[in-house]
Design brief:
The protein is α/β, with parallel strands linked by helices and 299 residues long. The protein has a single domain, classed as ATP synthase, F1 complex, gamma subunit (Pyruvate Kinase, Chain: A, domain 1), CATH 3.40.1380. It is built from five helices and five strands. Strands 3-2-1-4-5 form a five-stranded mixed sheet, with helices on both faces. β1, α2 and β2 form a beta-alpha-beta unit.
């Protein structure tokens, strides 16, 4: 059995760890409220851009493929996968579930004869892919806790350039969608080609509430010209939304993980306190037995 001093030192160490985890939980909770506000402000604008892009693509019809960014390649031999992770850990399964989903999708593509080009946002994603021996075509770090629109634009420009130059034939994004501080879900969105993009899947909430049909829109100039201007905005805003959703998910996951760590530390402290009391009782009992033995020896 460990000595009373050793157990007390362990209790002090666990108490110090609990102070750190509680502080990290409070910091994550404060930042989470701001992240939720940013998402709430962006979602209506992002939904409007995506709805306009989808409607313009439907109106353009067969003319969609005349623009380089809108041309669907004859075959999908090279798929670009963007993994949106965090710069830091200590957030439960936040990073690992994105990495598992991305590498699983890459294995499926490669089993079907396609090559995969990885892009990664966040140091955890970049370092994990490098550890697995995967080459990263684009690494974007240092902003995951507070992403700016310029960060999304930088990533979007690289992905669109790779698609237009035919370096990749498809662009998929894996990120954690924010539902609540306790719940985050892995989401997969296809950005390019537009013909297979996630935005072509219309949401019922975007239909007219009274008639259940989309409103008729007249375009001036042509839908093709409008699409040429909308597509970069659509890609950028989609990535910016993914970054914000990922940030909120990271903070929610870290807050939950630190709360669980604090609770576990409390349980460890209780167990160690009980062990220390037993050690103290054993020492007292041993001292009493020694005194009694000494007294009997004097009789």
């Amino acid at each position: 059995m460990a000595s009373q001093r050793d157990v007390k030192n362990r209790i002090d160490s666990v108490k110090n760890i609990r102070k750190i985890t509680r502080a990290m939980e409070m910091v994550a909770a404060a930042r989470l409220r701001r992240a939720e506000q940013r998402i709430a402000h962006l979602r209506p604008y992002a939904s409007a851009i995506r709805r306009m892009t989808r409607q313009a693509a439907e109106a353009a019809g067969g003319e969609v493929g005349q623009l380089p960014i809108l041309q669907q390649h004859e075959s999908e031999n090279n798929v670009a996968i963007l993994l949106v992770t965090a710069d830091r850990g200590l957030a439960g399964a936040f990073n690992s579930q994105i990495l598992r989903a991305g590498t699983r999708a890459a294995a499926e593509h490669e089993s079907e004869g396609r090559s995969v080009t990885f892009y990664a946002s966040g140091r955890r994603g970049v370092s994990s892919l490098a550890f697995r021996g995967r080459e990263v075509a684009g690494a974007y770090t240092g902003f995951t806790e507070r992403p700016a629109y310029a960060d999304a634009r930088e990533i979007a420009q690289d992905l669109m350039t790779a698609y237009v130059d035919s370096n990749v034939d498809r662009v998929d994004v894996f990120y954690n969608g924010y539902i609540s501080p306790l719940v985050q879900e892995v989401r997969l969105e296809t950005l390019l080609p537009l013909q297979e993009a996630t935005i072509l899947e219309a949401d019922e909430s975007e239909e007219d509430e009274e008639t259940g049909h989309h409103a008729l829109v007249e375009y001036e100039p042509d839908p093709q010209v409008i699409l040429e201007r909308l597509i970069p905005d659509y890609v950028e805003i989609s990535l910016y939304r993914a970054l914000l959703e990922s940030t909120a998910s990271e903070l929610g996951a870290r807050m939950t993980a630190m709360r669980n760590a604090s609770q576990n530390a409390g349980e460890v402290i209780e167990d160690l306190t009980l062990e220390m009391n037993r050690a103290r009782q054993a020492e007292i009992t041993q001292e009493i037995m020694e005194v009694v033995a000494g007294a009997e020896a004097l009789v």
